[in-house]
Amino acid sequence: MLKSLRWLWGESKGVRGRIAATALLGCATTGAALLFVWVTKTIVDTAVRSPESPLGWLIALLVGSLLLQLGSTTLAGRLEAECITRFSNTLRGRLFSRLMRARRGGRSQMHTGDAVSRLTGDVGTASTTLASTLPGMASTAVKLIAAFIFMATLDVRMALCLVVIMPLALLASKIYLKKTRRLTREIREAESRLQQQMQEDLQHRLMMSTMGRTDASVESFRERQRRFFTLTMRRNDISLFSGGMVSAGFMAGYAVAFLWCAFGLRSGAVSFGMMTAFLQLVSQVQRPVVDLARRVPALVAASVSVERLQTLFALPVEADEAPRRLKGGVGVRFEGVCFAYPDDTEGRSVVSDMTRDFAPGSLTSIGGPTGAGKTTLLMLMTGLLTPDKGRVTLYSTEGEEAVPSPATRCNFAYVPQGNSLMSGTVRENLLMAAPGASDAEMEKALRLACADFVLALPEGLDSPCGERGAGFSEGEAQRIAIARGLLAPGQVLLLDEPTSALDSATETRLLANLSESSGGKTVVMVTHRSGLGQTLRVGS
Q1: Domains of the chain, with CATH numbers?
Q2: Which of 172, 154, 174 minimizes the C-alpha distance to 162?
Q3: pTM, 2 dp
Q4: At how many degrees (to 10) do helices 134-154 and 16-49 cross?
Q5: pLDDT tens-place string over residues 292-332
């Protein structure tokens, strides 16, 4: 547990000052509360022993102590909420960026749902522990020690009794205004959009990387985080205001009741027993003990969350290099390439001693049985996987050469198997590949991909597209994704089973279009259709 707390503190460089300020404000609240107790005792003693003595300065000190408690508590709550939101945004942003750039190391990859769970629940738990639980425990410990010492000076037996006999915890009700409810809905919607982007962008990070959209994705995510932060702080301010008004009401009632008792003692209208019972309700010793006991489970949960987050930080990431686009037509050459997944316990080679030249402007179909390594070849081309032996080289008609890496991935346009559309509109999906594409260019790509059915829809390019292409059939979504790949500037078009959801007539027309009008791109497709362009069979 201590190791987890040290890790949290090491990650808190941007908010340490706020955390320390929150703890100090908690201590200030404790000091004000103990001052209040001393003032009440002094007022009672003065009222009993010297009935004629003036109480004006003591009443002023009493009111000052109450205002100090109210102010420090409200400010500490504001700082705590700001610290939690800032730290969670920073930590979640770093983890999201790391996951988007994580290297593939084998067939076993972290499920995106698990990753999203860690980015939301575990980050939230860790942030609350750092910004709320830890400073709260520090100020609570100070309060416990100070209150115990104060009570012991009055009656050590009473102090020990209050520590041993714990009162039942009372549930404090919170008041939420109508605006707070509206902001809460907006916050949840903003949080939902954050999770939606995390889920989808992590699922399609290769496609976005080949389009050069990784940085744009991270920036978009951070912009949504900024909105989430603003909404959260607005709601928190309103909650603090309404809660502060309630606290002020209770404090005022307490002060009035106490002063009534004090002046009642002068006149004999109030007994010492009533005053003693009233003072016992202060619970200056009991409350901190209950708080400390309540925070222990939170520390246990935080240690588990920290371990899960450390797993994400331990993921290897790709090198952050500037994109390198080769000039002219681009080809890919394999020379004696061998590759086996490291998590294959039997050590079987997926690719064995492969030599092949995918020449610029050529069209090659890769066939073979399931699991033969067809998709693995595409991963080797893009640099997501590195050969165990041999060499993969990108080269251009202008004489340039490069080894596949994140920097050279911009030379590819990748259309993965299955439905890879993002939620939004058809236009937004196409513009991911070419942000500056005109309507004419998008319409041309749709026709080439046999996706011109989009142009006949009532909203055309602005037709809505739900999560993972909801609203379109699998075949329609597949063709829109191909059009998106054709718009991408990369000169090597990688298609993984691009016709798996198409009928034979549409498949024939699409493949003919790609063969005749691919715009000079080098086309490499994984397909079960034979006799199209050059055919490479693997695993047979």
Answers
A1: 2-189+231-313 (1.20.1560.10), 330-537 (3.40.50.300)
A2: 154
A3: 0.69
A4: 20
A5: 656 666 676 677 778 888 888 888 777 778 888 898 889 99
